[in-house]
């Protein structure tokens, strides 16, 4: 991810201070929430992800990045560092601690450096089965339910790599079905203010042609590099709306709600790599969070957790601070309430064409959110079940039933049957 990427550094993986069980394949993998806030964690820094998750309140993390150490290799390492293999000895304790705190992680492959150096795993490795084996190894080693694929720069024009990657996704999805595992794949792609460019759409079109299910498309709503001054929250809305419409043409069998749930948004908090003309402010954050909640997006994220502080006013594109005046973890706190809901209904059991499968997992799940209570106080982002539907509060409320309807001023957003 990101147009600016430091060279991979040696990972100093800190052992968590708490004592928890190591991750192992026997653990029961729990699907991610249907709507999840999962900022990127820069794994090369040597920071402890569990510590930062606890400090920031960001329970779910997207961990970046996995890539080959050298072009032509079929082995993935954290940050391309051969001293940091995919192993429970690397991040296993930390991931277990994150889960003990009610969260989880999404390992991410690729990123700008990998995509620019030929070390993104599908660009590097020419064997589809070997690429699939790499994905499966990450899934079973850390018992995760989603893999993120950050594809940009040269990887967007490597047609052979695109085809291998999607074929490998299909193989892993078939394997997961035989194992009874929930496995999702998300693509993280650069965007214009109106949706994906054709290079990003080509990645998805190839996935459809390979019958590879893509569960979520996460657009990087920054680094537009178009010479314009941007209002970043407004451009996020137009970019995501454009993606929603593009997905509707690619997956005509999906409902409007399913299409929005396929949309993810990643901001670059503060001043991005382009400079001050692209500044995502602390005022933008609650606007985007509320809009994403109302639309039912599947993912809200930002680059990166280690930047969520105001330690370098006026500096753009830093890996350790946002460049804007802010309190530490201010963006994380603004986005935290977005996480809600159970696993997306139908995602693992829906075909790439959007046609529902006939498997039992495609039935409507029971409501797991607490029942609405007239005496309870609810704040924006709170979820309740009522009359067989899931509802999410848009703002503070008490005593107003989800059955109350007043047009645009409805306090409760109906998120569908549950």
TrEMBL record:
DNA repair as a keyword of this entry, yes or no, is no
Q: Where is this region: Disordered?
A: 342-366
Q: Which Pfam families match?
A: CBM_5_12, Glyco_hydro_18
InterPro entries, sorted? CBM5/12, CBM_sf_5/12, GH, GH18_Chitinase, Glyco_hydro18_cat
SUPFAM superfamilies with a match to the protein in the record:
(Trans)glycosidases, Carbohydrate binding domain
The signal peptide, as residue positions, is: 1-28
Q: Origin, by domain of life?
A: Bacteria
Key words, A-Z: Hydrolase, Signal
Name all GH18 domain ranges: 35-342
Entry keyword annotation includes Signal = yes
- Biased-composition ranges for Low complexity? 342-361
Q: Enumerate the PANTHER family for this protein.
A: BIFUNCTIONAL CHITINASE/LYSOZYME-RELATED, GH18 DOMAIN-CONTAINING PROTEIN-RELATED
Q: What is the protein's given name?
A: GH18 domain-containing protein
**Species name:** Actinoplanes ianthinogenes
């Amino acid at each position: 991810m990101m147009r600016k990427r430091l060279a991979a550094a040696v990972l100093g993986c800190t052992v968590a201070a708490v004592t928890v069980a190591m991750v192992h394949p026997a653990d029961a993998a729990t699907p991610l929430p249907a709507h999840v806030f999962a900022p990127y964690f820069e794994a090369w820094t040597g920071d402890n992800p569990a510590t930062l998750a606890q400090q920031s309140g960001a329970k779910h993390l997207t961990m970046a990045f996995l890539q080959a150490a050298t072009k032509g290799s079929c082995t993935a390492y954290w940050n391309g560092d051969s001293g940091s293999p995919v192993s429970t000895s690397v991040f296993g304790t930390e991931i277990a601690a994150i889960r003990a705190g009610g969260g989880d992680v999404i390992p991410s492959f690729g990123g700008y450096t990998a995509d620019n150096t030929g070390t993104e795993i599908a660009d590097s490795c020419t064997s589809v089965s070997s690429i699939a084996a790499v994905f499966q190894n990450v899934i079973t080693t850390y018992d995760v339910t989603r893999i993120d694929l950050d594809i940009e720069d040269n990887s967007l024009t490597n047609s052979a790599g695109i085809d291998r990657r999607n074929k490998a996704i299909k193989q892993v999805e078939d394997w997961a079905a035989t194992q009874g595992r929930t496995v999702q794949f998300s693509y993280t792609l650069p965007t214009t203010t109106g949706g994906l460019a054709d290079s990003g759409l080509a990645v998805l079109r190839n996935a459809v042609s390979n019958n590879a299910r893509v569960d979520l498309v996460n657009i990087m709503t920054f680094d537009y590099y178009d010479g314009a001054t941007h209002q970043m929250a407004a451009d996020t809305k137009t970019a995501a709306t454009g993606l929603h419409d593009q997905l509707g043409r690619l997956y005509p069998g999906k409902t409007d709600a399913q299409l929005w749930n396929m949309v993810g948004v990643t901001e670059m908090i503060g001043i991005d790599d382009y400079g001050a003309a692209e500044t995502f402010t602390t005022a933008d954050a609650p606007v985007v969070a509320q809009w994403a909640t109302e639309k039912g997006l599947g993912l809200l994220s930002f680059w990166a957790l280690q930047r969520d502080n105001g330690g370098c006013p006026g500096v753009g594109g830093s890996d350790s601070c946002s460049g804007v005046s802010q309190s530490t973890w201010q963006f994380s706190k603004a986005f935290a309430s977005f996480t809600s809901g159970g696993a997306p209904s139908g995602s693992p059991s829906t075909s790439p064409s959007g046609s529902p499968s006939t498997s039992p997992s495609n039935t409507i799940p029971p409501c797991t959110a607490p029942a609405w209570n007239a005496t309870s106080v609810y704040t924006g982002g709170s979820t309740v079940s009522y009359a067989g539907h899931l509802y999410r509060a848009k703002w503070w409320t008490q005593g107003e039933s989800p059955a109350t309807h007043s047009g645009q001023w409805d306090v409760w957003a109906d998120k569908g049957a549950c």
